[in-house]
Amino acid sequence: MSDPGIAEKLVEVLHRPDGDPALRPVHTIGISATGYFEPSPVARNFCVADHFCAGKTDVIVRFSNGSGCAVVHDGWSDVRGMAVRFHLSDGTDTDLIAMTLPEFFAPTPETFLEFAEEAAPREYEGETPWQKILNYLHLVLPKRDPYPGETISPDDGAIEFADKNAYSQLGVMQAAQIGAPTSYVRAAYHAVHTFVVTGPDGVRRWVRFSWQPIAGVLTTNAEEPPVDDYLRAELKDRLAKEPARFSLMMMIGEVGDDFNNSSRPWPPHRKRIMMGTLTLDAVPEDQIAQSEKLSFNPGLLTNGIETSDDPVLKVRIDSYKISSEWRGGTPCPFSEG
Ligand code: HEM
User: Fold this and answer.
1) Probe ligand 1: pick from 27, 105, 192, max atoms within 8 Å of CB?
2) Would you state the pLDDT for residue 293?
3) Is residue 1 part of a domain?
4) What is the total count of domains within the chain?
5) DSSP calls for 189-206
6) pLDDT on residue 150
7) In this structure, what CATH number is given to the domain that contains residue 209?
8) Between the chain's N and C termini, which has fewer beta carbons within 10 Å?
9) What's the pTM value of the predicted model, to 2 decimals?
């Protein structure tokens, strides 16, 4: 059983020295877009949730940079987020929150707290060319050089933690090499946790969701990082010309797969179902109300979709409510209920 105060401790620890208490402690910089979701013809055979059975469901999506730094650094290597809210036909909402890492850093709230404490951003310590050569000789990847103006390193503490804790190695290595997307709609996003979906025949399946961009994944050239602030302007320009689309893929777990630990991948050959297509075609004018103040929650689910017993997913439900209250966000519909 988790320490009842851990949800709050996690939010405290995630706040960065260069963050802003009036904004999100992580995924601070972002932009929202609107559009609709259309289920595939097979989606309703796997899940009775309204948006998998309805015709079109209106959505609002917030894309974000994972960092809690309140200054825009779009060109810097960072995990990106995609939080989707589906406005269901009965007037209620459901959320699906995803990020560009396929696996999380830790299996439990307690281990994530330890990770977050040790991985807290710290002063950049660059490597000399000699240290780099020595690292190569020891088969250790050399550290990335800081970007111009980058004084706080997001990776050093995380890499030290991963050296001692094997469960975080996959997530940390992927995060350290993730780079920057050329566009928020040219990245794949993973909801990471396992959810339980119920079909019309009452069959329950343990599944993981991810969004695949129809335009394909494309990162910037790491040797020539683009200007600091391009992702929001790119999205506005792109959607003014043509819609952007994502496929929602659902991977079905099998006996032996880890359902309650999002730091562990499932075998890549698991069955995947194409659940539908998301089309984004507008950027709301009022980005304060429609992005900054919005509060998503991974526990805002609907009939046909439940949480698994993943303890990290469970703690997030409280952490997001606390964070939203602290920053003066609009309570998510779930908190009001
Ligand atoms: C114990 C683990 C985690 C904790 C404590 C945590 C904490 C938080 C907090 C406090 C926020 C800001 C919420 C707000 O103020 O509205 C946030 C935002 C976010 N988190 Fe997490 N997080 C965790 C794991 C994850 C995972 C596994 C994912 C990927 C699926 C994720 C993706 C995101 C995204 C995309 C946002 C931005 C949502 C938005 O645009 O409003 N987080 N997280």
Assistant:
1) 27
2) 97
3) no
4) 1
5) EE--S-EEEE-TTS-EEE
6) 81
7) 2.40.180.10
8) N
9) 0.95
